[in-house]
Design a protein that fits this description.
alpha+beta, YefM-like fold, single chain, about 80 residues, 4 helices
Length: about 80
Amino acid sequence: MKTMTATEASRSFAALLDAVERGESFVIVRGGVRVATLGPATSGNGAALKSLLTDSPDAEFASDVEAARTAVVTDAYPWPAD
């Protein structure tokens, strides 16, 4: 993964997008600190997500999720009133 400054990325944005389109990835830094990564977008069509959301979980997993939900205490530390 290549690194470039935000200024370099700004000045050559079209060329940067061309490189990303070819499959390259970049880390953008500002003041020596990583602020972004830029890389090719995924090409999924959502079928995997739809399958994940529509398939029923097995009974053991469903039981684990329910146990986790009941273990969470949501009102232990209420937000202070103004």
